[in-house]
Amino acid sequence: MAVAVFALWALLVRKRTGIERNPPVFDHLNPYQPTSDLMTLPTSVDDGNQVNDPRSVIVLPLACALGGVALGVVSRQCRDLISGPVHYEALVSLVVLCVSSLLLVFVNRKAMPKSAHLLFQLENSFLWLGHALGWLVVNQSLRGDFVFFSVAMTMVTALIGSALLLFMRVCKERSWPRMGRGKSS
User: Fold this and answer.
1) 152: which residues sit within 8 A by CB, 6+ positions away?
2) Residue 70 above 90 pLDDT?
3) Which of 134, 127, 154 is nearest to 77 (CA)?
4) Torsion sign, CA atoms 89, 95, 99, 101
5) For the chain, does the N or the C end have fewer beta carbons within 10 angstroms?
6) What is the rounded distance in angstroms from the CA atom of residue 140 to the CA atom of residue 19?
7) What is the Cα–Cα distance from 64 to 69, expressed in whole angstroms?
8) For the chain, what is the total number of helices (H) and then of strands (E)?
9) d(Cα 65, Cα 83) in Å, to the nearest integer?
10) How far is it, in rounded angstroms, from Cα 98 to Cα 85?
């Protein structure tokens, strides 16, 4: 829950600092001008990529780590309270971690293409590492199955998140036609 709050907070900070701005509209351009005249565009045109705010590059991974630690501690503390063959606290923490990883994809989707993957991987790794660290500190012993599962889920969410980031960038570049718009023949 804390990770979701921090991810949304970072998204709002990025919006408030002007990182998610629309490219400027050039009203002085005439669409009927010859192409040689159109090639002299102002140099301040942004190519649609964001500049990453240094504060969000530091704050969001640390927030992910702290949120992961908090979730790991709560999950391990609740393990003793719930009896039975199914560990519901582990399932809830797994769902929260996976949803948090998806939120991180959407937080980083507007960043520059190369840094979006890097930032997502960093934040996702800190999230899962923090969860494992919090869980293992409360458990006071090293559990090989838990460490293996945490590493495996880190890799799975990293691959899925990077694939989603790549897919969103390709869709944006191709500007797919939207259904239901235009004239029907």
Assistant:
1) none
2) yes
3) 134
4) positive
5) C
6) 43
7) 9
8) 6, 0
9) 28
10) 23
* Rounded distance between C-alpha atoms, residue 31 and residue 34, angstroms: 8
One-letter identity of residue 13: V
CB 136 within 8 A of CB 142: yes
Q: pLDDT per residue over 8-65, tens digit each? A: 666 666 655 544 444 455 555 666 665 554 444 444 334 444 445 666 678 888 999 9
pLDDT for res 51:
46
Kindly state the average pLDDT of the residues 154-172: 89
Helix (H) or strand (E) holding 83: none
What's the predicted TM-score (pTM) here?
Answer: 0.65
Closest CA to 10 of 96, 163, 120, 161: 120
Res 125: pLDDT: 93
26 SS3 class:
coil
